[in-house]
């Protein structure tokens, strides 16, 4: 018998957030104040400012309808055979557990990615491997990041997509899964441009987290549990579960719900009327894990987390 599993927790609702964007504290073009207010004005419930080597803790922006999550992006060079542009990693934390001081971080000469990860993880932060495709990272080098303690990866990054056409890193994910790693799947804006801009290269990469309430405990706990989906402006996923040996998906109207189960043929439910809102896939029991991609047929999509298939 296949064990029942749900991607999303039962209670609560979905909260929209972005785990990766920049301000003038590093190479972004907006002040942190404008950037935060811009995300709030565009319907975001929570935000991580992932400035390069600059740790942000702007909890004074918290309200009943917005949560500022502390974090940063840190960089490290690599050997050319590991990654063309080195390592970029974002992180976030509970404000009362993080021990990195607010402000700029200067890494001592000779600091390695191992040293950085040890420091950031030791400061009670959670790490996400950013935009591996844009970096020109080797697939196995990304896996080294999971071995070092990254809990997730960006399957989509808006600025890499709009700027370099290297926004989609799905191949990296499937390679990692085939190697037995099941990272959390994030999509992020990585927006650097001016605030309140009408150029649509941002507010497109985000996650929607199903949580009991908009508090650090609820939001971060739900992220760590995988109670969220990643999206490139795609259809919302309302439910993704394994029940009685069948994968069940409920979503906004879409062109296709695709089942991904590495080293199997997977599956699909599609309609040229773009009206698929429900899909079911019977499992054989031999699958190691499943995830789904919900595609609007116009280039936008959402990605579920991974559910492992357990026979009990
Ligand atoms: Zn980066
Ligand atoms: Zn970035």
Structure report:
The chain contains 7 helices and 21 strands. By secondary structure, it is of the alpha+beta class. It has 2 domains: 10-233, Alpha-Beta Barrel (TIM Barrel), CATH 3.20.20.140; 235-312, Immunoglobulin-like (Sandwich), CATH 2.60.40. The strands form 4 sheets. Strands 2, 3, 5, 12, 13, 16, 17, 19, 20 and 21 form a 10-stranded mixed β-sheet that branches. It has a 5-stranded mixed β-sheet with strand order 6-7-9-10-11. β14 (237-243) and β15 (246-254) form a beta hairpin. The chain is globular.
Could you name the key traits of this structure?
single chain; 312 residues; alpha+beta; TIM Barrel; Immunoglobulin-like; 2 domains; ten-stranded mixed sheet; five-stranded mixed sheet; 19% helix; binds zinc ion
SSE arrangement:
Layout: E1 5-6, E2 13-18, H1 32-41, E3 46-47, E4 54-55, E5 67-68, E6 71-76, E7 87-92, E8 103-104, H2 113-122, E9 126-129, H3 132-135, H4 139-148, E10 152-157, H5 158-164, H6 170-178, E11 184-188, E12 205-211, H7 216-225, E13 228-232, E14 237-243, E15 246-254, E16 256-260, E17 267-270, E18 276-282, E19 289-295, E20 301-303, E21 307-308
Parallel strand pairs: 2-3, 3-5, 9-10, 10-11
Antiparallel strand pairs: 1-14, 2-12, 4-8, 6-7, 7-9, 12-13, 13-20, 14-15, 15-18, 16-17, 16-19, 19-20, 19-21
């Amino acid at each position: 018998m296949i064990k029942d599993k749900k991607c999303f927790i039962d209670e609560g609702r979905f909260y929209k957030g972005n785990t990766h964007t920049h301000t003038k504290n590093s190479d972004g073009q907006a002040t942190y104040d404008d950037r935060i207010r811009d995300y709030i004005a565009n319907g975001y419930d929570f935000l991580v400012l992932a400035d390069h080597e600059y740790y942000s803790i702007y909890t004074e922006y918290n309200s009943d309808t917005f949560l500022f999550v502390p974090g940063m992006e840190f960089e490290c060079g690599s050997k050319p055979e590991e990654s063309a542009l080195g390592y970029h990693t974002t992180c976030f934390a509970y404000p009362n557990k993080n021990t990195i001081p607010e402000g700029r971080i200067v890494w001592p000469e000779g600091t390695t990615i191992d040293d950085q990860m040890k420091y950031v993880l030791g400061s009670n932060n959670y790490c996400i491997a950013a935009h591996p495709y844009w970096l020109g990272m080797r697939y196995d080098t990304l896996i080294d990041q999971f071995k070092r303690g990254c809990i997730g990866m960006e399957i989509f990054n808006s600025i890499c997509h709009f700027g370099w056409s290297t926004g989609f890193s799905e191949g990296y994910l499937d390679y990692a899964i085939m190697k037995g790693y099941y990272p959390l799947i994030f999509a992020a804006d990585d927006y650097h441009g001016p605030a309140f801009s009408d150029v649509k290269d941002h507010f497109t990469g985000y996650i929607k987290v199903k949580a009991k309430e908009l508090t650090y405990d609820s939001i971060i706990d739900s992220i760590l549990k995988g109670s969220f989906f990643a999206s490139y402006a795609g259809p919302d996923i309302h439910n993704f579960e394994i029940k009685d040996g069948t994968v069940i998906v409920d979503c906004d109207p879409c062109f296709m719900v695709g089942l991904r189960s590495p080293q199997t043929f997977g599956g699909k439910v599609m309609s040229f009327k773009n009206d698929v809102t429900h899909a079911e896939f019977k499992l054989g029991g031999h699958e190691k894990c499943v995830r789904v991609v919900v595609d609007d047929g116009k280039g936008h999509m959402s990605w579920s987390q991974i559910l492992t298939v357990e026979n009990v």
